[in-house]
Design a protein that fits this description.
Layout lengths: L1 H8 L6 H11 L12 H11 L2 H10 L2 H4 L2 H15 L2 H10 L6 H23 L2 E2 L1 H8 L3 H10 L3 E5 L7 E5 L12 H15 L1
Antiparallel strand pairs: 1-3, 2-3
Helix pairs in contact: 2-3, 3-4, 3-6, 3-8, 4-6, 6-7, 9-10
């Protein structure tokens, strides 16, 4: 468990789930998950890494007495919402807690990671989004959502001709295509070149 504490102190949250998995497997006790095991931390660490199936299997292995713990119940609610793709439910579960001192920084880091992921998904899927919708997707206030969007170069505009009747919307600026990645048109062109070479 010293390695887990060190990973938490170094903010190496992606290593926590693997360290806890290894500690569970190496334990000589058959009741390791009932003997003061940091189950909520373990569940959150799997969610942080995006290993939702592993988190579900961990929850199924937990004894009922551990599942009754409020923190484990909160982590389970968060996992259920993440599994179902309910981002607003994930944010409610993250805010509701209660998170113990070892799990609190991981829950905060999970929220930050999910917010970045949501912004990436919005950038890929939307050309315009209202601040209210972005705030709901990112689990923050509209002001925080607008600030995060503007930090990515998105522009706040008014749809509907401006004036008082217009609706504020953020114009999404897609991230630049990285070297080695192709946009859909370039991929289609490359595919057609390959096909013509095959004939």
């Amino acid at each position: 468990m010293e390695q887990v504490n060190a990973a938490l102190q170094n903010e190496d949250y992606s290593a926590v789930a693997g360290l806890l998995d290894e500690a569970e497997l190496r334990s000589p006790s058959t009741t390791v998950l009932a003997d003061g095991w940091p189950a909520a931390l373990h569940l959150l660490a799997h969610v942080y890494n995006g290993d939702l199936p592993d988190a579900r299997m961990l929850y199924k292995r937990l004894p009922d007495t551990v599942k009754a713990d409020p923190q484990v119940s909160a982590a389970w609610r968060l996992l259920q919402c993440a599994w179902q793709g309910n981002s607003e439910g994930v944010w409610r579960a993250l805010r509701a807690g209660p998170w113990s001192p070892p799990a609190a920084p991981l829950a905060t880091a999970l929220g930050e990671r999910l917010r970045v992921r949501q912004l990436d998904l919005v950038a890929a899927a939307y050309s315009h989004v209202t601040p209210a919708r972005l705030a709901a997707l990112c689990g923050c206030s509209e002001e925080e959502a607008v600030a995060a969007a503007q930090a990515r170069g998105w522009k706040l505009a008014t749809e509907g001709g401006g004036g008082e009747g217009g609706v504020a919307a953020l114009e999404v600026v897609a991230p630049p295509v990285s070297r080695g990645e192709l946009d859909s048109l370039a991929a289609l062109e490359q595919l057609s070149v390959y096909m013509t070479q095959l004939e």
